[in-house]
Every structure is written in structure tokens, then in C-alpha cells.
Amino acid sequence: MRAVTIPEPGGPEALVWAEVPDPEPGPGEVLVSVRASAVNRADLLQRQGHYPPPPGASAYPGLECSGVVAEVGPEVTGWAVGQEVCALLAGGGYAERVVVPAGQLLPVPAGVDPVDAAALPEVACTVWSNVVQVAGLAEGETLLVHGGGSGIGTFAIQLGAALGATVVATARSAKHDRLRELGAAHLVDYREQDFVEEVRRVTGGRGADVILDIMGAAYLGRNVSALATGGRLVVIGMQGGRRGELDLGALLAKRASVTATALRSRPVSEKAAIVAGVRGEVWPLVEAGRIRPVVDRRVPMADAAQAHRLVEASDHLGKVLLTVDPVG
Ligand SMILES: NC(=O)c1ccc[n+]([C@@H]2O[C@H](COP(=O)([O-])OP(=O)(O)OC[C@H]3O[C@@H](n4cnc5c(N)ncnc54)[C@H](OP(=O)(O)O)[C@@H]3O)[C@@H](O)[C@H]2O)c1
Description:
Elements: E1 2-5, E2 16-19, E3 29-38, H1 41-47, E4 64-72, E5 84-88, E6 97-101, E7 105-107, H2 121-134, E8 142-145, H3 151-162, E9 166-170, H4 176-182, E10 186-188, H5 195-202, E11 208-213, H6 220-226, E12 227-235, H7 248-254, E13 257-260, H8 268-287, E14 295-300, H9 304-312, E15 319-323
Parallel strand pairs: 8-9, 8-11, 9-10, 11-12, 12-13, 14-15
Antiparallel strand pairs: 1-2, 3-4, 3-6, 3-15, 4-5, 5-7
Helix pairs in contact: 2-3, 2-8, 5-6
The chain binds NADP nicotinamide-adenine-dinucleotide phosphate (NAP).
């Protein structure tokens, strides 16, 4: 089969479409013939040599895919050859075939294009596990989503709105109209406006109940300032650095919390539990049309470098897919 390899870490040109050995499914695993993968911010870091795959994961990038079940390994029940699926991966999605622990497979939701389904697993699992499981977002609360135009952000806006929350999102203004259509009630151009002031203004001074943050250190203090009493800040990205100063007094006075989580390094059993939760609670919202995959464009997988340039420049909204013709 062919896969996107990284012989030497570096810029987008470090991605090389090459012939590699075929993977074989072991016990509890399924071989998927890939139709599409999607670019995640983490793939850019992996390409640069800053985010090595966890032990046991494929060396090729790609944290999600859609495709067709090509082979079912021993001890797998509930999946059959020929089924259309999508999957959460620890790596290896940028390839014609990938081996997936059975617990990380999902059916393609009814009404979703089987290629576009590749845009869903990573964002659905990340956003649902953090916003619902960790932060406990409830109907009527306010959710602040940083980077509303990202793959993660476009999903978080839709999930928050579907759960009955008021969603505030930060993004460059060129993306605001589209994010309003996805369900954001208020938009903040983080380059020109102070999101703390804006969140206070639109909540009558109360602040946000839940903040989904991708900026890390750069936003830590202001995020705590933007929290409501009893608020929950969940940090899932460190685009603005990893070491910040936390005012525990401000947190204590608000009886608020700060949590940070990563999905990729979690054990297979924990990922399977998240995938099961997503299938039970999120897939019905997708099938009802309340949440849609947001696909900026499709790029042939052999041109992954072009897709990485696009995402690096943040010229996209939602997900950039990498497509491949399925092999048997
Ligand atoms: N912890 C986990 O398990 C986990 C899982 C998946 C993703 N993530 C993290 O989630 C983040 C989003 O991932 P992705 O793949 O969806 O990314 P992406 O599509 O590449 O988007 C990155 C976003 O960052 C935004 N941004 C840049 N500077 C900003 C600022 N100062 N304030 C607000 N937004 C800013 C950009 O917004 P504009 O285009 O509007 O400038 C862009 O939408 C990444 O940090 C990624 O590492 C974490």
C-alpha cells in the first residue's frame, strides 16, 4: 500500500507519498481500506518532529479516517467486511489502509457522505469528552469556544448549540458569518476585541460557564477572568505556550476549575469508552442534521503537503480532508 511518510521532520515538503508494507489486523483489530483522512493541528507538529506517535501507534500521521472494512481480525464482533465506517486513530490515517482497534470504529452516520465522515471522529471525541464529560455543559449555560473556525471549534459550536447552550466563539472576522450559521450566538475577533470584555458584555457580567481553550498559556489569565462563578475551563491546546501564571485567588473566589486533557495518548480502553459515548449521544444529533461535518475542501492524499500549507496558514474553516481511492 501507499502512505504519507516522514523520512525527515521538517516543512510540508517533508511529507512523502511512498510504498510501505501493508498492516495486518491482530486480535481485536479491524483493517480499514481508507477513503479519506483529515488534517489535524497535531499532524503539523508530528511532521515537524515535535509530536511523536505514542508507543505502538503507526509511524504515519492521521488521527482519523473514513473507509470500508477490508478485513476483521480475531476476537472482533459486530463489524463485517464491506461496512462503511469512520474511526478514531492514534496515527496511520494518511495511508491506503490502516489497522484500528475495533472499539475505535464508528458507523458512518445516516445522511453523512462516506468521505466527509472522516471529518468527524477526532473532533467529536475531543469536543464531547471535554465539553460534556469533563466540563458538564448544561442547557442554558454559556460556552466560550476559542478558535471557532478550527476543526475543533466548528464542531464545538454546533454541539454547544445543539445542547441548548449560548455559544460565544473567537475567530478572525472573515470566518464570523459561517460560524453564526453553525450556531454561534456571539462572535469575537480576537485580533481586535478583548474576549473577556465581550463575554462579560453578552452575559450581563456573569461570564462563561464553560471555556474550551486551545491557546494555553497565552489565554490562561484572561480565561479565568472570563469564567462565571462555578465555571469550568478546559485546556486542550497550547498554541500560545505551555507555561502560564494561574491566579489561584481568582479561581478560588469563583469556585472554578481548570482541567487539561489529551486524547491521543489515552489507553485503547478509554478511547473505546469515549467512542461509545459519542455513538450513543452525538451520532443521533448528526443523524438528525443538528451537527454536520464542516469540510473546507478535499485534497488528494498524495498532495498532503498542500493541505498542510493551507492549515498552517489558517486559510481553512473546519476540516481539510485527504482523499484516496479505496483499495480492496
Ligand atoms: N487535547 C486534545 O485531545 C486535542 C485534540 C484535538 C485537537 N486539539 C487541539 O485543538 C486545537 C484545534 O485543532 P484543529 O486541528 O481543529 O486546529 P485548526 O483547524 O488548525 O485551527 C487552529 C485555530 O487556531 C485559531 N487561533 C489561532 N490563534 C488564535 C488566537 N490567538 N485566539 C483564538 N484562536 C486562535 C485559528 O483561528 P483563526 O483562523 O480565526 O485565526 C484556527 O481556527 C489545536 O490546538 C489542537 O492541538 C487537542
